[in-house]
Please model this.
Amino acid sequence: MPALLAAVLLALYLWVGSQTLDSIERARVNLDFILSATSRHVQLTVVSTVLVLLIAIPTGVLLTRSFARRISPPTIAVFNIGVAIPSIGLLALFSVVWDIGFWPAVLALVAYSALPVLRNTMVGLQQVDPTVIESARGMGMSKLGVLARIELPLAVPVILAGVRTALVINVGTAALATFINGGGLGEIIITGIGQNRQLVTVVGAVLTAVLALLIDYLAGLAEDFLRPRGL
Amino acid sequence: MSEFISYLESHWDDLLELGIAHALVVAVSVAIATVIGVALGIATYRTERPRELVLAITGFFLTIPSLALFGLLISPLGLGWPPVAVALVMYALLPIVRNTVVGLREVDPAIVESAQGMGMGRARRLLRIELPLAWPVIMTGMRVSTVIVVGIAAIGAYVNGPGLGEDIFRGLRRIGNPETALNLVLGGLLGIVVLAILFDLVYVLLSRLTTSRGIR
Model:
């Protein structure tokens, strides 16, 4: 995968190098602008994903504890409807009722991508064999000890799959942050579309796609690496 | 809140028109993706290498951010319906192919063997035995694809695609006038959620009507 992505970038570089750029194209297709847009894009993705982890995993743990057993089915039903909310609608809503810029974009990403992590945390914890939990309790482990040393480690593969999904959603949705002045690589794409400069559109689109594929690839590596031994 | 309700009352027909266009582009795209996806699933479910290749390629499509894909497609296809429909088909493929493969592989080999013993040829076994048994799983894939595609179609409005995304982008352009902007954005957003729920109901109905009676 990395070799393929590097080849795509090289081909893009050679193609752009063979074209003569006008002033609008030069304003977007230059290394400084591309690097700052990329780093903004990565910031949007990483900050929103970290916030999702901090919010969704503890919430998922709480919702699977025995005291919450009653409210978890209706909560899941609400989540299933939440999946239908379009990402661009959420970004637009945050910008209208709150503000434009980086943070509204980040929080819209968090709201949009929290569901897969939350759902996978709950599913991962619920599929742990109850007899395993019972034997741990019988050995004298506290409820918290069972959660930290038995349930969570056993749920890690499912939770990680959810985190990877959230990461891919975030890197894709971050391309839309530019619609509410949040920056990112989407800015290059919409300049190209808005000013009718195909070269700019293609450069922005290819860079965005390469970044998304790279992040998905890295998340896949991390997923294999972080999985507890013995599972 | 009452502002929004009176907005809905006065713009009811516009929203309905956009909603129908939105539903149409989604339905057409999922239908095309189903034909392609089921065909790919049938062609590859028995052989490991091609199957993995098809799943990798359709998974690759789903990883490409939608704005980037629209940007790449407007060079050859222009603005409007074509790039949006093509992109939506690409996004809808993975769940349908994956579920076709899973559904077909889950069919009990003993059943297929007895069909063979009864003298059914390869094509008839597929059409009369394997596909009907896999159909509920394939429908689930179509349902997942539809939810994904209903949301992405909203972004297609930026490249002049049809549907409720148009109101969301109009709202974004009028951000200086918060009241109008909020009405437009909320109208588009809620319209899309309602549409997703309606599609789900249609699938419930469709799966009742089209699932073979023996496995219902």
